[in-house]
Amino acid sequence: MIQVLPVLVACAIASKGYTNILAIEEPESYLHPRLHAALAEHFFELAKQDKPPKVLLETHSENFLLRTQLEIARGEIDPELVMVYWVRQLDDGRSIAEPVIFDSKGRPQGEWPRDVFYTDIELSRQLVQERRKHS
């Protein structure tokens, strides 16, 4: 609660129009992964306002990003309102931020790394296969 309370207060302040920019580093810190999507919903509510603040988030949460994609796929948020930058490290040690946009179905376009979410998807696929073997 100590970590997420300032995030929720910042969202409330931004929702009242007291700030035009809301920037938060890892808003999901110390939250159980099941709550990442719920926290993402607060940011979607900000984005849906008549005069939304600009929201800049830095996150490592797959659940946060998947929830964003789901919101787009459901038509609840315009993909034009979402911009993701994928930061990757070059061989020489420098980092670059590459923009990733989403289509209307929440599918990433552009320089999206192929192995993102691979482990989760592969484990889920294997689990489904095992369940089918035993049913």
Write structural notes for this entry.
The protein is of the alpha+beta class. It is built from 4 helices and 5 strands; from the N terminus they run αβαβαβββα. The strands form 2 sheets. A 3-stranded antiparallel β-sheet has the order 3-4-5, with no helix packed on it. Strands 1-2 form a two-stranded parallel sheet. Helix 2 (33-47) crosses helix 3 (62-73). The longest helix has 16 residues, at 118-133. The model has no long low-confidence stretch (mean pLDDT 88).
Topology record:
Layout: H1 4-15, E1 21-25, H2 33-47, E2 54-58, H3 62-73, E3 84-89, E4 95-102, E5 108-110, H4 118-133
Parallel strand pairs: 1-2
Antiparallel strand pairs: 3-4, 4-5
Strand content: 15-25%
Question: Helix/strand/pairing class, anyone?
Answer: alpha+beta
Which of globular, elongated, flat, extended, rod-shaped describes the shape?
globular
Please, how many helices?
Answer: 4
Weakly predicted, low-confidence segments: none
Percent helix range: 40-55%
N-to-C SSE string, H for helix and E for strand:
HEHEHEEEH
| CATH class assignment | Alpha Beta
Q: Order of strands across the biggest sheet?
A: 3-4-5
State the domain count. 1
Distance between the termini: 42 Å
How would you state the average pLDDT, rounded? 88
Radius of gyration: 17 Å
- CATH topology call: Rossmann fold
Main beta sheet strand tally, sense and closure: 3 strands, antiparallel
- Based on the structure given, which CATH architecture is correct? 3-Layer(aba) Sandwich
